[in-house]
Amino acid sequence: MLSTAGRSREGRPVSRWARFAVVGIGNTLAGDDGVGIVVAERLAERWSDRPEVVVETLPGDLFAVAEMLGTAESFVFVDAIAGDPPGEIRMLTSAQRAFAASLHQTDIGTVMQSLQALELVSPFPEWQVWGITIDPPEELGEGLSPPVAAAADELERRIVDHVEALTAR
């Protein structure tokens, strides 16, 4: 069983009682693949004083999300998804596998399904993947392409609206 209180890897306090978590996934050194991290960092600044919202990043091993499972009732994972044209926003439910353009060993959908089967926390949190389509990175380089940057702005707005509606209840 995971601890239900403590501190995040970034040193922020976390609590089982958070209603909502946003987790950015990606690698900012691989251009558009880092869009999930970029969006999460923006949201972390916005919600730094909101204990009912936890914002984290997963720039590496996706199985590290196991440490976060006890922090919130509901998760939205923000990630890059291979698709054409770049810059489209896609929302995948927990019943679907996230086919991410990933430098990770697997995708977050497969990780979450595996962790749910292990019954690490009960109840297991609800989760979705909200992604932005990208061309898979062919070389390293920081920064987002114009269509992905525009989609990141829109996705950030949608997440803010979604979380504000959920936490207002």
Task: Based on the model shown, name its key terms.
alpha/beta, disordered N terminus
Description:
This protein is of the alpha/beta class and 169 residues long. The protein has a single domain, classed as Rossmann fold (3-Layer(aba) Sandwich). Helix content is 27%, strand content 27%. It contains three helices and seven strands, in the order βββαβββαβα. The protein has helices at residues 35-46, 108-118, 146-167; strands at 5-7, 13-15, 18-25, 53-58, 72-82, 89-93, 126-134. The strands form two sheets. It has a five-stranded mixed beta sheet with strand order 4-3-5-7-6, with helices on both faces. The chain has a two-stranded antiparallel sheet with strand order 1-2. A hairpin with a 5-residue loop joins β1 (5-7) and β2 (13-15). α1 crosses α3. The longest helix has 22 residues, at 146-167. The protein is globular, with a radius of gyration of 15 Å. The two termini are 29 Å apart.
Describe the secondary structure blueprint for this structure.
Layout lengths: L4 E3 L5 E3 L2 E8 L9 H12 L6 E6 L13 E11 L6 E5 L14 H11 L7 E9 L11 H22 L2
Parallel strand pairs: 3-4, 3-5, 5-7
Antiparallel strand pairs: 1-2, 6-7
Compact summary:
The protein contains three helices and seven strands.
According to CATH, the fold-level topology is: Rossmann fold
**What overall form do the CA principal axes indicate?**
globular
Measured between the Cα atoms of the first and last residue, the distance is 29 Å
- Name the helix and strand elements from N-terminus to C-terminus, one letter apiece: EEEHEEEHEH
Biggest β-sheet: strands ordered side by side in the sheet: 4-3-5-7-6
Note the main sheet. Answer: 5 strands, mixed
Give the fraction of residues assigned to helices.
25-40%
CATH architecture: 3-Layer(aba) Sandwich
Rg computed from alpha carbons, rounded to a whole number of angstroms: 15 Å
The total count of helices amounts to 3
What is the structural class?
alpha/beta
Low-confidence segments: 1-9, 11-16, 95-102
Number of beta-strand segments: 7
CATH level 1 class label: Alpha Beta
Question: Averaging pLDDT over every residue, what do you get?
Answer: 84
**Assembly form of the protein:** single chain
Total count of domains:
1
